[in-house]
Structure formats: structure tokens, C-alpha cells
Design goal:
Blueprint lengths: L3 H4 E6 L8 E8 L2 E8 L7 H14 L10 E7 L3 E7 L3 E3 H6 L5 H20 L2 E2 L8 E4 L5 E3 L5 E2 L5 H22 L4 H10 L11 H8 L5 H21 L10 H9 L1
Antiparallel strand pairs: 1-2, 2-3, 3-5, 4-5, 6-8, 7-10, 8-9
């Protein structure tokens, strides 16, 4: 094992990545790039904030999703203090891409698929979090893969309907801003985003599943079930009419004789 002094090298503060309570750094651990997240100096040593960072580590450590930044460890880093250690996700935030007019259609496509997939996973695991903003959506430097950072601080037995709907609204707000600032024309996605961003929760999609169906241009399972039930009944009627048990139809001659009388 290398001595502690050689474990950490090239530590650099990234002010634009800082969060409300945390400073964020990039560094190499045994030669591999990682990112560090530690309490700002004014919060260090205060029990409630120390408990907060520990709780965030406990909540996020077991999360595993390709579009959410994974936490690897929680340890003391010389000169910085106790840090949450995450995968390296150096790249451009959606906010910086919007501000620099660099958003391309592939970024929009990844919001429709990768961003939505990450939201779905967060909700399925009942993770409470601050509102997701464009600053927390990162497109990695080399391949442009979407990653969410700062995704949650507590896991609960269930999310409230309001919390789940707020995620849908934030999705709509982010997508609308992206379409507006990039000038990318996608009428279907715009219509979906406007519904998501509606101020009245009753007008939004019921859940992430319905939102996904809308984006994939598919209908709800309830409609599919109704259609299948209808077709099943029609097929049963046709089979019955072609069976020996179908109702008897009077022969034409008998009908004509009856008419002559």
C-alpha cells in the first residue's frame, strides 16, 4: 500500500461546481481521477452539518444507475477534510451549454431518455432531493454521457404525490428552457414539456410512467387493455357465429312462402 501522502495528488478546487453547503474538488486517487465533495469551512465541525454529509453518503452509496454519479467512499483527505468520493464526471453542465449556445440535438435526445431514466430511478428508490436544475445535469467531456450530480440526501418509505409531481414539473421546465435557448424544433417534445411544467399539478402527467409513454408516443396500458378486451369479445362472437351453435337462419324458400300468404 502506498503511503497516505501519495494517495492523493493534483487536488484542485472547482468553484463553479460548488453546492450550497459543499465545496467540490477534482483530484487523483492512486492516479485515477475522482471528485471530492466536502463541507464548506463555515459548516465544518457543526454536528448537524456533519450528520448531513454522513446521511447523504449513506443514502447514495448503494445507488447504481448509469446516469447518476456514483459514490465510492467517504474518507479524510489531507488538507481538505472528510469528503464524499465520487466518480469523475468532468464535463459541461447543461447550464453552461445553454449560456454558451452549445446545445445540440443529441443533448435534447439525452434529456428525453437518459435524464428521464435517472428521474425514474430516483423516484423508484424514494430519494428526496433538492429541485433538479440545469447546473446539476452534466454531459461528460469525452462521450457526452448525461450524469446527474447532487441527486439526493434521504431515502424514505415513499415519496409524496407532490414530490413526485415536482420532478415532472422540473423536467418540463428544463426541457422548455433547452428548446427555447437552443432553437431546436421539436413540437411533440415542446407540447409534452409544457404539460409537465403546468403550474397546476392536476394538469401534469400522472407519473413518470405516463410521461415516458408520451415521449415514446405510446398510449397508456389502460387503453391497450380496453382495446384487447374489445377485440377478444369480437373474436369470440365471430367464433360463435361460425360454430354449430350459431342461431338458426330461416331458409329463403320458407320466407318467400310466408310472404305469399
Amino acid at each position: 500500500m502506498k503511503p497516505t501522502e501519495e494517495r492523493w495528488t493534483e487536488i484542485e478546487h472547482l468553484p463553479k461546481w460548488d453546492e450550497e453547503f459543499y465545496d467540490v474538488y477534482t483530484a487523483k486517487k492512486y492516479g485515477k481521477w475522482v471528485m471530492l465533495k466536502t463541507l464548506k469551512s463555515e459548516y465544518k465541525g457543526i454536528p448537524e452539518y456533519e450528520a448531513m454529509i454522513e446521511k447523504e453518503f449513506d443514502t447514495r452509496y448503494n445507488l447504481a444507475h448509469p446516469h447518476i454519479v456514483m459514490i465510492n467512499d467517504f474518507e479524510e483527505v489531507p488538507g481538505i477534510g472528510r469528503c464524499i468520493i465520487t466518480d469523475d464526471v468532468y464535463g459541461d453542465s447543461l447550464r453552461s451549454l445553454l449560456d454558451e449556445n452549445k446545445v445540440r440535438r443529441e443533448h435534447v435526445e439525452k434529456l428525453k431518455t437518459q435524464f428521464l431514466s435517472a428521474l425514474e430511478y430516483i423516484q423508484a428508490n424514494h430519494i428526496t432531493h433538492l429541485p433538479i436544475r440545469s447546473e446539476r445535469i452534466i454531459f461528460t467531456e469525452n462521450i457526452g454521457n448525461l450524469k446527474l450530480i447532487d441527486v439526493g440526501f434521504e431515502q424514505r418509505p415513499a415519496l409524496t404525490p407532490e414530490q413526485a409531481s415536482d420532478d415532472i414539473r422540473n423536467f418540463g421546465i428544463i426541457v422548455l428552457e433547452t428548446l427555447n435557448k437552443s432553437g431546436i424544433n421539436d413540437p411533440q417534445l415542446r407540447k409534452i414539456a409544457e404539460k409537465c411544467a403546468d403550474a397546476d399539478r392536476r394538469h401534469r402527467y400522472r407519473d413518470i410512467h405516463d410521461l415516458r409513454l408520451a415521449i415514446e408516443n405510446r398510449r397508456s396500458n389502460h387503453l391497450y387493455i380496453a382495446i384487447i378486451a374489445f377485440l377478444t369479445v369480437m373474436i369470440a362472437i365471430l367464433i360463435w357465429l361460425s360454430s354449430p351453435y350459431k342461431p338458426a337462419i330461416p331458409e329463403m324458400q320458407e320466407i318467400e312462402t310466408s310472404d305469399q300468404r
